[in-house]
Specification:
By secondary structure, the protein is mainly alpha-helical. The protein contains 16 helices and two strands. Strands 1-2 form a two-stranded antiparallel ribbon. 49% of the residues are buried.
Length: 393
């Protein structure tokens, strides 16, 4: 009977099947005579998809075991590990433009792809769907502030006259970027404290095991204790990882993500030369989608079960974490390793970020949406993808 169950599980399509690309990538990378940069890029990207999914699962399982406060802190610290790991490796290799493109992609893919796909699925299945307007407005306001703060150095660089020899544009922008990073980290710390306090002392959250459980303890999901309960039928899932297994998966996935990120960073030049892809397209679209595969899948699955409010929480909070935590952390880290990266973004990146925030704010302003709104968000992401593919910079 157990053998039949194993066969049944293996016969079903699963994201875990992509794990086959992990040994393939290692073989191509290290076996003499087999290294092909373009093949290695694609196998590494496919491997990063499943590793990012494992990282998300391990983070959720670990947070589920340690209670609301510590669980929330762990979710905040580990949920963006793919972006952090790839960003650190790109910065260490001196690939600042690629790192900034990946940051842009992480923000817009969470806002447009995760939330857009969730709205489309939920709206198609249930018609006009609603979500808590106050939480959507708070998240949209936070994203607007973070986006403006990130883009201000770019505006500053174009507005200030650096023609004088006594003024170094690079030094000024670097200093401005570091200070803005400190303020954004302070803002993120404040948002975490507020969120934990709000959930800790609210009646629904008293029964939740972690931040995810607190999110789903709303009027639309009164019986859910965590993300798994929201989008997976109770009869289908009775698996719970212990703390040692969760930590082991988290550690192993982080190491694998580091290897794969290193392969991708090394292969970018070959891909841009051989396939004609721009560095902006590789970083913002390819890497941006891969790093957020867990958030995208979670947002879509909970929307399928008519929990669109949780889909908004997943997508918008993930985008906020990238803007308020990941990017400032990597800016400060780049200075510490002696390869500073600044907040100087190109005009296409500025347009993509501002446009994404505006369309998110527009759609969430009345607490109602339908599948057409989700399709519009995905189309806008497609427009951005085309522009980045032909990016002249």
């Amino acid at each position: 009977m157990q053998l039949q169950e194993v066969k049944q599980v293996l016969s079903q399509p699963s994201i875990h099947w992509l794990a086959i690309f992990l040994p393939i990538s290692l073989v191509i990378a290290y076996l003499p005579g087999l290294r092909n940069e373009i093949f290695l890029f694609f196998t590494s990207c496919l491997g990063m998809v499943v590793v990012a999914y494992w990282l998300g699962n391990a983070t959720e399982q670990l947070a589920d075991k340690v209670g609301c406060t510590w669980g929330g802190m762990m979710n905040a610290a580990f949920s963006n590990l793919p972006e952090l790991i790839f960003g650190l490796i790109a910065v260490a290799k001196g690939l600042g433009p690629l790192a900034k493109a990946a940051w842009t992609g992480a923000i817009i893919s969470n806002m447009l792809v995760a939330v857009g796909a969730a709205i489309m699925v939920g709206g198609y299945r249930f018609g006009t769907v609603t979500f808590p307007l106050d939480r959507a407005k708070d998240a949209a306001a936070g994203l607007m502030i973070a986006a403006v703060a990130i883009l201000m150095p770019s505006v500053y660089a174009h507005a200030v006259d650096f023609s004088s020899e006594s003024v170094s544009a690079a030094d000024v922008i670097k200093n401005v970027s570091v200070w803005l990073s400190v303020f954004l980290l302070m803002a993120y710390g404040g948002s975490i404290i507020y969120t934990l306090a709000r959930f800790r002392y609210s009646e629904p959250a008293l029964q939740a095991k972690n931040l995810a459980g607190a999110f789903v303890h709303s009027e639309s999901a009164p019986q859910a204790k965590n993300l798994t309960d929201v989008f997976v039928p109770e009869e289908d899932v009775e698996m719970s990882w212990g703390i040692p297994l969760s930590i082991g998966v988290l550690a192993a996935s982080s190491v694998l993500m580091a290897f794969l990120s290193n392969f991708v960073a090394d292969c970018v030049d070959s891909v841009t030369t051989g396939l004609g892809w721009t560095e902006m397209f590789v970083g913002a679209i390819v890497i941006g989608i891969i790093g957020n595969v867990g958030a995208i899948m979670s947002a879509v699955m909970v929307a399928y079960r008519n929990k669109l409010d949780l889909s908004f929480e997943i997508g918008m909070n993930a985008a906020s974490q990238v803007a308020l935590l990941v990017i400032p952390t990597l800016i400060v880290a780049s200075v510490l390793v002696g390869k500073p990266v600044d907040f100087l973004f190109s005009p296409p990146q500025i347009a993509a970020l501002i446009g994404s925030v505006l369309i998110m704010t527009q759609i969430s302003q009345d607490g109602r949406c339908n599948w057409l709104n989700g399709l519009q968000m995905l189309i806008f992401f497609g427009v951005i993808s085309v522009l980045f593919f032909y990016d002249p910079t």
